[in-house]
Amino acid sequence: MSELEQLAERLGVLLLERGEWLAAAESCTGGWLAQSVTAIAGSSTWFDRGFVTYSNEAKVDMLGVPASTLEKHGAVSEAVARAMAQGVLAHSRADWAVAITGIAGPGGGSPVKPVGTVCFAWAGKDGGCEAQTRHFSGDRRAVREQSVHHALAGLIERVQLATYTA
């Protein structure tokens, strides 16, 4: 079992204990998080759905990301990641949502947003939504894999925190 699948399995145990559901919105990872989650037998009892919203139009159409947010901040921004995560909650039965949007490379970067820049958001039905930007190194595959790892680890951290404070 891969390290990503181990993280997904750990997340699934936490969600099952709480009777909660997860859904995801992915851009630069192209469904890799959803693949890691669905590699776990029984994940249909805690994973609702995944949205691969690679284009800006898909972010608007499928998740309701405001076009003005995309225009103002760009697709690779914490504002868009938050809107994606909130859109996941609005378009699923999930209790938890994660969103990933970034520049995996090898091209597409800029001095302000270099290759390896990835924005994340984690949202819960309780209304909380946190966003974070990370900068990963390596080739396209490495950036994408590190992004999935970070997103899953962030979910585990937040679900555990909610468990301890509930």
Structural class: alpha/beta
- What proportion of the residues is helical, as a percent range? 40-55%
In the CATH hierarchy, the architecture is Alpha-Beta Complex
**Helix segment tally:** 6
In total, how many beta strands?
A: 5
Strand order of the largest sheet: 2-1-3-4-5
Major sheet, described briefly?
5 strands, mixed
Radius of gyration: 15 Å
Q: How large is the share of residues in beta strands?
A: 15-25%
Number of structurally distinct domains? 1
User: What is the CATH domain class?
Assistant: Alpha Beta
Shape: globular
Low-confidence stretches: none
Task: Give me the strand/helix succession.
Answer: HEHEHHHEEEH
Annotated CATH topology: Maf protein
The mean pLDDT is 97
Distance between the termini: 31 Å
* Oligomeric organization of the protein chains: single chain
Name of the CATH homologous superfamily: CinA-like
What can you tell me about this protein's structure?
With 166 residues, the chain is α/β, with parallel strands linked by helices. The chain has a single domain, classed as Alpha-Beta Complex (Maf protein). Helix content is 46%, strand content 20%. A 5-stranded mixed beta sheet has the order 2-1-3-4-5, with helices on both faces. Helix 1 (3-18) packs parallel to helix 6. The longest helix has 26 residues, at 140-165. It is globular and about 45 Å long.
